[in-house]
Amino acid sequence: MMGGAEEFLAAAVRTGTPLALAALGETVVERAGVINIGLEGIVLAGAFGGLLAAGSGLVAGFAGAVVAGVVVAALFALFAVSMRADQIITGVAVNLLVVGLTGALYRGIYGATGAALTIPTTGTLPIPLLSRIPLAGPALFDQAPPTYMAYCVAPLLAWWLYRTRSGLALRAVGERPDAARAAGVAPASVRWMAILIGGVLGGVGGGMLVLSQAGTFAEGMSAGRGFIAIAIVALGRWHPLGVLAAALLFGAASALQFLFQAMGWALPYQLFLALPYVLTLLALAGLAGRRAVAPAALGQP
Amino acid sequence: MSWLRRVATVALVSLLALGALWLALRLAGLDATRALVALWDGSFGSGYALTSSTLVRATPLILTGLAVAIAFRAGVWNIGAEGQLLTGAATAAAVGLFATPAFGALTVVVALAVGALAGALWAWIAAYLRNRFGVLEVISTIMLNFVALYAVGYLVRGPLQEPTHIYPQSEPLPVLAQLPRLIEGSRLHWGFVVAVVAAPVVWWVLRYTAAGFRVRAVGQNPSAARVAGMVDVQRTTMGVFLVSGALAGLAGAIELTGVTFALYENVSPGYGYTAIAVALLAGLDPLGVLATGLLFGALEAGALSMQREAAVPAVVVNVVEALLVLLILAVARWRGGSAILARLAGSGSGASGDDSTKAGGGGAAGRGKARPGAPPASGTHAEAAG
């Protein structure tokens, strides 16, 4: 029983981490008034970039993931910010592009099947002492390095967004870009920077799918995580700490299926997978706790 | 004239995208010419390819493209066509599997009607959340897509699973619940006719009816529409959501009763998302959707033959589709083209400054509680449908 609960918590954190990283990036992006549906493509590109660069070691792998994520993010920013194109349409196009490019390149480079392609992974890195705490210790502190990165990034972003001038400027751009401009802030530059940060974090989130978890790549392996991250941002009320917690909740929902299998329960786990989305909708409507309010200028060019 | 220019633009952009594909395949050391020939052969090259691949594939793209076009025209950012399509497919499957004895020869009609209704209902959730609580439909529809996907995943492992309980899919529908073939010996079904008829109907409604006028007014400038007192913005957006959802639900019901005959999780290869590209390329014009739906149907049908004949992965077609969208955005930005395209591409008609975009109608009054995420509606003159 104990082992099952421990395994469940560890799986929740493990599946929640890529979501958390991508969602933390998207939080910054959305705080700047941009909704980047292309996050799905960024995560997928990060996974593929990680695979491509993994030949030169794991650090290079993560660097590759970041570069891939940033390149895709820059393409999105070029259209959605510099050319002021519609963000949703640009995001959809970016996703199509990355699905096609990674799929074609993967088959081109690794052959039509790409089977049996495995690369070494980071594995878990237990933190001394902390990982020995019963129950929560192994779940929280015996994880892959990117998990610890998520732990650090969330409070860092919270501090940046709410305690610094540049964070204030960024949020101002997300609420009233015209007012921010009048106050001497250049909305376009702020949004570019926010989107690139989203590219870095989304790229790491995708990279860790390959480099810390699967040890291999599969076409379309982002499997909707970028979209899920957008839901997580809303459930986390656009606050980095809330977003981290929401990501772990989504992770827990998908980890339930492992728990059910371990316990031999035949409950339909899809219903539990759908639960966090329903919860997010309720939270947005203000029916579950305090109402979540989106940045006022979200989605406007 | 603007219509001609749009056709010319899309044609030019398509040529550019295909040229880029040819060059990329060439650089990758593949037989690029053969690949493009296969693309043609598999889409328009033969009567069979046209009827059994291209038109079949185009059907759901046209219907979901219409769903997206009508929504975007009203400033309703429904990116939930995928989920609405899935609910339509799932309910049509349920009707076909359980209600065939009750409805007999009418089963397929009932299945389509119920599918459309289910799609509308699924969209209604997002509409209600937006009107009542100001929830951004961009976010709520994404989430509803996932809920629908998981619901289908549950159904095909639960109540709708085939009797042996081995495969995560439903039993094939009985013949009475299947759409009849339009041409014997091909895969083309009557759903294509539905799609072809739906496009001019939507076009006519948008252009010539009072309801269509209200839709366009709300899309152009919700605050002006409200202030002028002639349009109930909430009612109009609700109606648009319902029609949009019904079209997408119909697409799902048709796909199920005309193509797959059984419900399974991957029943849609992302039609609802591709539909956004289809609608954009058409400049959100319902008649244009007919053409761009056909274009995308041909691309996706041809891609499969490209994979078979020239060993080029079919997924590259996604790159071509993405290039089409990005190029059209760039062109619209550059030329200031039609008002709608220019709006989507972000350049106002004649004005490109940020402040003019703001002043154009996306101002604070226009996006009070119920209208966050409103398009800036910088195209100030009324956009005629044609």
Explain how this protein is built:
The complex is a heterodimer of chains A (301) and B (386). In chain A, 71% of the residues lie in helices and 1% in strands. Chain A has 301 residues and is an all-alpha fold. In chain A, strands 1-2 form a two-stranded antiparallel sheet. The radius of gyration of chain A is 19 Å and the shape is globular. The model of chain A has no long low-confidence stretch (mean pLDDT 86). In chain B, helix 4 crosses helix 11 (233-260) and helix 4 (81-98) packs across helix 12. Chain B contains 16 helices and no strands. Chain B is globular. With 386 residues, chain B is mainly alpha-helical. Chains A and B meet through helix 4, helix 8, helix 10 and helix 12 of A and helix 6, helix 7, helix 12, helix 14 and helix 15 of B.
Key words describing this protein structure:
heterodimer, A: 301 residues, mainly alpha, two-stranded antiparallel sheet, 12 helices, 71% helix, 1% strand, B: 386 residues, 16 helices, 69% helix
Cα shape of chain A: globular
Instruction: Indicate the multimeric state.
Output: heterodimer
First-residue to last-residue Cα separation of chain A: 52 Å
Which structural class should the secondary elements of chain A be placed in? mainly alpha
Rounded average pLDDT of chain A: 86
Counting helices, strands and paired strands, the structural category of chain B is mainly alpha
N-to-C span of chain B = 9 Å
Give the H and E element order of chain A: HHHHEHEHHHHHHH
Based on CA atoms alone, the radius of gyration of chain A comes out at 19 Å
The strand line-up of the biggest sheet of chain A is 1-2
Shape of chain B: globular
Low-confidence stretches of chain B: 346-386
Biggest sheet layout of chain B: none
Uncertain runs of chain A: none
Number of strands of chain A: 2
